[in-house]
Design a protein that fits this description.
This protein is α+β, with helices and mostly antiparallel strands. The chain has a single domain, classed as Jelly Rolls, CATH 2.60.120. 14% of the residues lie in helices and 34% in strands. The longest helix has 10 residues.
């Protein structure tokens, strides 16, 4: 499995070796040795596995979790294709406000590791796109926050041929600057400490 560090500090894209034959294909999207080599530590303890299915044009995000307790994610696509975007929402981070993107599909079978406190968005590029997530903490609606995926200051790379299909929550979400002024964003030092310790409150 190959690892590539993204423009957002602490975020990585992982590409596994895919074995094809006349029966189909086989791959291992979760490989602890690859995480340890790239991060200097194992992947976070997995508290929950979640799964979404979206039609073309659906935009989910930008979502992040209040820290503490925070949430790290590992996302990969099991059907269809998605443009996955990582947004640094951690106040004090050396890459605060920066984003990077990776195409997740069933051809290259890339996966994205999102450290604690960063925002996550994806755009479904095909109908019935399925994305699976490993989460470091259990989902709790009261701890989840959203930023506008259409924030002009962020300029996220939603493809021009996509008409975004947004939830009401995402449509009404604040911009990054508005969330920062309101004190809604996680602090980099808190997020980094959780990632390095592997501990969860």
């Amino acid at each position: 499995m190959k690892a590539r560090e993204l423009a957002v500090e602490g975020a990585f894209a992982f590409t596994p070796e895919v074995f094809h034959d006349d029966r189909g294909m086989f791959l291992s999207p979760h490989q602890e040795e690859a995480f340890t080599q790239a991060l200097g530590r194992p992947l976070f303890p997995v508290a929950q596995c979640s799964y979404s299915v979206s039609r073309r044009g659906v935009v989910r995000g930008v979502h992040y979790t209040a820290t503490p307790p925070g949430m790290a994610k590992y996302a990969y696509c099991t059907r269809g294709a998605a443009l996955d975007v990582v947004v640094d929402t951690r106040v004090g981070s050396p890459t605060f406000g920066t984003w990077d993107s990776v195409v997740l599909d069933t051809r290259e079978c890339q996966a994205v590791l999102l450290p604690t406190g960063v925002g996550h968005l994806f755009v479904a590029l095909e109908d019935d796109t399925a994305v699976s997530y490993l989460l470091s903490t259990a989902y709790a609606a009261e701890r989840e926050h959203a930023l506008s995926p259409l924030d002009p200051a962020l300029g996220l790379p939603i493809p021009d041929d996509i008409t975004p299909v947004l939830s009401e929550r995402d449509r009404a979400a604040p911009t990054l600057a508005e969330a920062e002024r309101a004190g809604l964003l996680p602090r980099y030092a808190d997020c980094r400490a959780l990632d390095l310790s592997g501990a969860r409150p």
